[in-house]
Amino acid sequence: MRMSRGRRIALHAVAVVYVLVLTLPLAIVLLNSLRTEGEIIRSPLALPRPATSANFSEIFRDSTFGVNLKNSFIVAGITVCLTIAVTAPAGYAMSRFRFRGKSLFSTWLLATQAFPGIVMVLGLFTIFSTYGLINTRIGLVVMHTSFSLPFSIWLLKGYFDRIPSALEEAAMIDGCNRARALLRVILPLAVPGLLAVGTFSFLLSWNEFFFALIVTRDEMLFTLPVFLSRFLGMGGIVRWGPLSAAALLATLPALILFMIGQRYLVSGLTGGAVK
Predict the structure, then answer these.
(1) Which candidate, 254, 218, 247, places its Cα nearest to that of 80?
(2) Confidence class of residue 274 from pLDDT cuts 50, 70 and 90?
(3) pLDDT digit string, tens, across residues 184-234
(4) For the purposes of burial, counting CB atoms within 10 Å of the CB of 141, is it exposed (0-12), middle (13-18) or buried (19 or more)?
(5) CATH number of the domain at 64-273, please?
(6) Comparing C-alpha atoms, which of 209, 214, 202 is closest to residue 255?
(7) Domain extents for the chain?
């Protein structure tokens, strides 16, 4: 059934308004990052006249932003690698093998997504304290990886379900064992699903704030969300210009990654959702 012209125009108008509402905060951050503190206070929504890069210079010169940026990249990068390394064989095993408790385990993977993270704070803090993971990058990596595993395993399990098992059976007939068939045949076909898992785990680690705030104590180990929440100028006064510049730079990596990988993310999510 074709949509009427009036309905199409209304739908497009709603879409344009929705996009403008979503991009307005980012546009304000961009404009304020290029303006002086006095201009921002006088007129928060005005254009920069003239534009200045002093805010960007200040956050690198007078704060730990560079170190915290490196921390975020290290933690998110290792989280992505560990998540893919664990979930690829786990998702494959869930898809191909039958074992006792498989249905219960699948249900548990989805059930973990229903609980708010705050209910795990005390337990996680106790465990991390026992094993000396408080205030360490390793603790952040372990925490973020554990958060991304359940959904990623479930997603890849559904994606592997769509790949015919006859492919690895043919490879094993030709001399491959199951591990080589997985590496040489199945994983190359599952690249969109793996990219979806990598994108999901990177965004989760990059943007995670609450547990990173609890685990880290030293400002030299903060990730960017924690750094931004505690960013203050001299005398405890919020410096909106440098804060806007830091927020913009913190947003760009995740935004660029999503723009590059959105096609794989959508195809991976839909592929893993439908058997």
Answers:
(1) 254
(2) very low
(3) 888 888 888 888 899 889 999 999 999 999 889 888 999 999 999 887 655
(4) buried
(5) 1.10.3720.10
(6) 202
(7) 1-52, 64-273
